[in-house]
Amino acid sequence: MDDEKIFGPVLYKLSLASAVSRGLLARYQIIVLELQDPVLTPERLYGEERYSEEVRGQRLGALRPRCCTRWRSMGFRRASPSTTGR
Fold first, then answer.
1. How many domains does the chain have?
2. pTM for the complete prediction?
3. Helix, strand, coil % (nearest 5) of the chain?
4. What is the span of the domain harbouring residue 38?
5. Are the C-beta atoms of residues 59 and 45 closer than 8 Å to each other?
6. Please, which domain of life does this record's source organism belong to (predicted)?
7. DSSP 49-78
8. In this predicted model, what pLDDT tens digit does every residue of 51-74 receive, in sequence order?
């Protein structure tokens, strides 16, 4: 969005830190997980079959329990239906 010819001039700039401190954006954390699985080799994850249903399912199957474990260790709780809008 740096191209003024396409997007027009900047009307107002607000830094991420300012938006969070003003309550316009929620605080966030970036969590990086390292996934080591003998079945999901780099060749499978980045190779020709990376978009196959089998590899996608295996990737999700390996990732989900690790994410849940990490979230629990950080004190996150499951979202209740009332907070998710469902």
1. 1
2. 0.48
3. 50, 0, 50
4. 30-77
5. yes
6. Bacteria
7. GGGSHHHHHHHHHHHHHHHHHHHHHTT--P
8. 999 999 998 888 888 888 888 888
